[in-house]
DNA sequence: CAACTGCGAAAAATCGATTTACCGTTTGGA
DNA sequence: TCCAAACGGTAAATCGATTTTTCGCAGTTG
């Protein structure tokens, strides 16, 4: 803190008015760009603004309007690259339109999600971008509906009867993963996920299963899911492998699952892709620098963010009409963690792929 | 958007007042817990609040006070685990005190940092937690000083003559890394970093160098830094290895450097820890599930956050006195990426460590 | 019986903007 | 010549709270 009290009160619009010798209303008009002000008066206002270093107080300016120039963003967490990028994008887009983004983390709790939403309602935000913890049918969306709030649902949603939704096309991406794995000859595949996020996880699972079975009706697909946290998932996975199950590939429906799978592999001394292949939903920066690089589904963060903001502002500006449900295409990055079953030396040395020196 | 217009105007304090048959001032007092209100009137106010579902408008409530119950947080980015966790922590701590946290990303730009700060000043935030892009001497801190803002500087800072600072004890942690590496017998170590973040990077470098030389005066320490982005760092590193330099260990002073080092290792087909050892500043979730697990310095995020908030609110409440500079201790996690030089099979197979099955 | 003391509550001022209503002057057309 | 519209601007209302001031009514005191 600057302990020498440079705390001079900030100049208000009235200070500018008296310095310029006009009324506050005139100052307001000049700054709003109204043209029915005499040029000399406008100039004096600009001079006074300059001299005093005046800046509009956005909160005071918002007091009168029903919707303030604030957009709320509620994410399940901030720690992952995906939501971090999402917040960064949303912030920039809101800013471009002269709005401030207020982001909050629901910390994967539906109760907290609703509380945050209530607080944002108190703030009279113009709109909310909600990435629900679970899906579009949670208490938060119900609250928004009940209070006539404007909002867009993203990520863990499919479609809704009240709000526009934007999410990655999980089903299509999963189908592509299925094509890759089955195409490489995998016929026993384990899929892992967390079931709470019903909306997307189910889409991913079904998209994968349908495509895999279409390509090879005799493919065996095992599924392990846990309800809330990853630890039960880890336990189930450990138990599954402990029973002697040996799928040739694992498809993780979410980032945390990919981490769990990797740590279980290393616990057992299995190596990708020789002992088992791995593909995960959600990409991360580290996945391309590890040994092996991890194949992943990349979500179109920027497109989801910009599409969500477009839809949101359309509604903020009063657009009516039935809600739309958007699915943005993903990119599947094939990397070294995927191989053909039984092609590499099994559980032994010499497993490294040595890329040529440039 | 709920297209059936459930947009009923929210009840104001006057609605509550008229429903309760008292004045708005009385309602305000009751809700503020003033005791000089007749119990029966207080009860009628509570009833009206309940019936109408009234909640205070925090913005209107803040209008009269000079400092609003808002805390600003400015981070260089949101994409990394470190800053993601930091924002999550800060948000919770602000909330506990009845404040709203407004977070913004400077996107590693000092110009943007200052703009955001100006906007937060417009908002009349009570205080700011600033994680500067570079160090405590940037334009943002100067702006805060010039405008008498209350704030705390964190992370990439050492100490300041105007603001309290809180950061990880980079020097001590680096010294411990030096003890580990030199203790394992490494005598040619490469340190990589980005020089722009002068404050912490220099502390880390000097802490490391001093300790390493104290333990082994003949140790060779090479340093590669780049100015702004990681790509020049990657180029320099590539060039360095290309010249035939073969340190036995690399210490990266920041997370992005760790990624660059890893990707260069894999480009050349080198393997940790047999071909080269690696330690990085900043831990990440994935580092313990890769092969090998990456040794890292863990920053005490929670402690930094809570200490910063404590100091900040002390100043917000008017505490005077000279600024304090806090250093919070780090934890160094030794993992498989660090070995003794020349102990493993060099550049060959069989490099995996197989942990026993439980 | 007038003046004084308290108490509880209402009225009014305040915060910093925007917006509406209104008021003189010009200017224009009929 | 006279009324009306256009112009340029100001005072006041407004937004939703908090805080200060005032007020009315009891009950005491001199």
UniProtKB/TrEMBL annotation, chains A, B:
Q: Which parts of the chain are coiled coil?
A: none
Q: Name one Pfam family in it.
A: LacI
Q: Region (Disordered) spans which residues?
A: 335-358
Q: Which keywords appear in this protein's UniProt record, sorted alphabetically?
A: DNA-binding, Repressor, Transcription, Transcription regulation
> Has the keyword Repressor been applied to this entry?
yes
Gly residues composition-biased segments:
341-351
Query: Where is the HTH lacI-type domain positioned along the sequence?
Result: 11-65
* Keyword flag Transcription regulation: yes
Highest taxon, organism lineage: Bacteria
One GO MF annotation is: DNA binding
* Name the record gives this protein: LacI family DNA-binding transcriptional regulator
Give the species this sequence originates from. Mesorhizobium humile
């Amino acid at each position: 803190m600057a302990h020498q009290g440079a705390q001079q009160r900030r100049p208000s619009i009235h200070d500018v008015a008296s310095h310029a010798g006009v009324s506050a209303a005139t100052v307001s008009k000049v700054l709003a760009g109204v043209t029915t002000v005499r040029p000399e008066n406008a100039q004096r206002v600009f001079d006074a603004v300059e001299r005093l270093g005046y800046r509009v107080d956005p909160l005071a300016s918002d007091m009168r309007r029903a919707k303030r120039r604030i957009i709320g963003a509620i994410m399940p967490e901030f720690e992952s690259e995906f939501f971090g990028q999402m917040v960064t994008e949303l912030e920039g887009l809101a800013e471009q339109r002269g709005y401030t983004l207020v982001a909050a983390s629901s910390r994967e709790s539906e109760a907290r999600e609703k509380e945050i939403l209530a607080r944002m309602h108190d703030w009279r935000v113009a709109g909310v971008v909600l990435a629900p913890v679970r899906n579009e049918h949670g208490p938060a969306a119900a609250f928004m509906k009940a209070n006539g709030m404007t909002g867009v649902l993203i990520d863990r949603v499919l479609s809704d009867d009240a709000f526009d939704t934007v999410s990655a096309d999980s089903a299509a991406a999963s189908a592509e993963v299925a094509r890759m794995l089955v195409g490489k000859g995998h016929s026993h595949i384990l899929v892992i996920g967390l079931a709470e996020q019903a909306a997307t996880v189910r889409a991913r699972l079904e998209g994968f299963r349908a495509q895999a079975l279409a390509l090879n009706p005799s493919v065996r697909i095992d599924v392990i899911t846990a309800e809330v946290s990853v630890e039960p998932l880890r336990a189930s996975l450990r138990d599954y492998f402990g029973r002697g199950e040996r799928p040739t590939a694992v498809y993780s429906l979410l980032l945390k699952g990919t981490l769990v799978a990797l740590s279980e592999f290393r616990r057992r001394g299995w190596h990708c892709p020789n002992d088992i292949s791995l593909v995960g939903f959600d990409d991360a920066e580290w996945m391309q620098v590890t040994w092996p690089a991890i194949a992943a589904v990349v979500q179109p963060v920027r497109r989801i963010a910009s599409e969500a903001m477009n839809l949101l502002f359309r509604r903020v500006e009063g657009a009516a009409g039935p809600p739309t449900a958007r699915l943005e295409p993903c990119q599947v990055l094939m990397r070294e963690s995927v191989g053909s079953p039984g092609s590499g030396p099994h559980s032994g040395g010499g497993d490294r792929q040595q890329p040529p020196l440039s």
